[in-house]
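Issue 218. Parser rejects a valid record. Input:
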Amino acid sequence: MAMSIPCYASFGTKLQDPLNYSNYNGVEKVKSIIKKTVIPSVSSPVESLQKGNWVKLICGASFEDLVDIRNLSLVYTLAGVDCIDCAAEASVVNAVNEGIEAARALVPIRRPWVMISVNDDEDLHFRKAEFDPDDCPWDCMRPCEKVCPANAILQKGGVLAERCYGCGRCLPVCPYDKIRAITYVRDVIATAELLERDDVDALEIHTSGREPSVFRELWTGLGNSTANLKLVAVSFPDLRDSTISAMNAMYSIMESSSIHCVNLWQLDGRPMSGDIGRGATRDAIAFARKLASAGDKPKGFLQLAGGTNIHTVEGLKKERLFQTTTIHEPSRYETIPSTLHSPNALIAGVAFGGYARKIVGRVLSSVQSHHRPARVEDFPEQLLQAIIESLALVGTVKCYNIQKQIT
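Output the parser choked on:
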């Protein structure tokens, strides 16, 4: 199990220390793979959006384990992601940036954008499970512990709040109905202060899309703090017949106060489910298909999330939506001109969350120490394993040719 530390902990000045590698062969292999595979394919985040090979790592809007966040950010920066999305907490933002700089100290790779996530109202991504372990019957089989994908439930304790990201899988399996979900809304003033930092590049607003008034309240409350952002994303579910009207309403609110940056619509298919299996990605792909062909949607890039995993690009290819600028009708094989009248790809890219954390987390958990925060770069063989796992996922979108580099 990965070690957890309080969310206020930090690696601090340790990033300035000389790296003490015990196995230089592993480190050199990592550098070689990144320089030959990732560096030649790296483009700016905006170019990635336009070409349809944008990749975002979702650390989790409620995930606050700083050790994992720092190491995940290091690994996926080296893998070439365009953006790292994290909780809107200063300590979490610091951990992301520490991971990015540690990666860039290994290989001079371009810096991904750092995004913080907030909500305008109650949202699944902004909740924590909670229960009193003293209330649990002594003979309980603890199914909650078995189903938790974040290792956030201790065998002889309750929920580790910093590791719980709100997936809710523990709630229905408790045989005694002892587990509660505690929801919260990020403070708008604290969010505005974070957005004014020079190491925060983007904002994501999670919304149901059903209440324009609460979206307007949040957007207005942020004031001028959005002025220097590079991107604003809105994450929302499929609202069926109301989807386009909700998008237009939200875009009008943002446009009324002069949005100055790129905007993106995150299509949240099946939230926090990518690690479950192949079928989890179907809802996001269906959502993308629907919006890609809609002619009356507001401007902005479209990006998949919610259930995304190693099978997502395969599904997009079957729908002929992967890195294409035109809509294809599978039944007649006709091409309909893009409603965007633009060379931009119809689908800008994919965000990976639970699945991305799972495949690399298996490696990270093996290097954690109970004595001090573990830096994955201090374990070159494990770093190499983590890089191979991350490249296999990111490479589905970036189209890396990694096989001959890792053999």
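Fixed in the parser; the record now loads. The mean pLDDT is 87.
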